[in-house]
Design a protein that fits this description.
single chain; mainly beta; 7-stranded mixed beta sheet; 4-stranded antiparallel beta sheet; 11 strands; globular
Amino acid sequence: QLQASGGGLVQAGGSLRLSCAASGRTFNGPHMGWFRQAPGRGREFVAVIRWVGGHTYYQNSVKGRFTISRDNAKNTVYLQMNSLKPEDTAVYYCAARTTNRGSLYLPISYDFWGQGTQVTVSS
């Protein structure tokens, strides 16, 4: 089970930090990360981290502004979002996958999802 938190309303240029805790058992990976879905749009990849080793992957539009990290001991992944823009407004979902099957950039490749947390960036 994944529990996401940390969303909210912020002005453009502001920052938010999302957290996602995995409960039930120790997460073994390989990947945990974040997707987002804006109204009228499909769910899109934002950032993912490899649980062992910590390699990170980012959508081009968030590179340099967002940072994904994890705390293995707490079974938790974080998304630090800086320099937020109105186009970052969406429901953010954390996701985890337990195999390397499929592309890590596609939602269908993930086995577990959090409940979603709203991020709203005002201009």
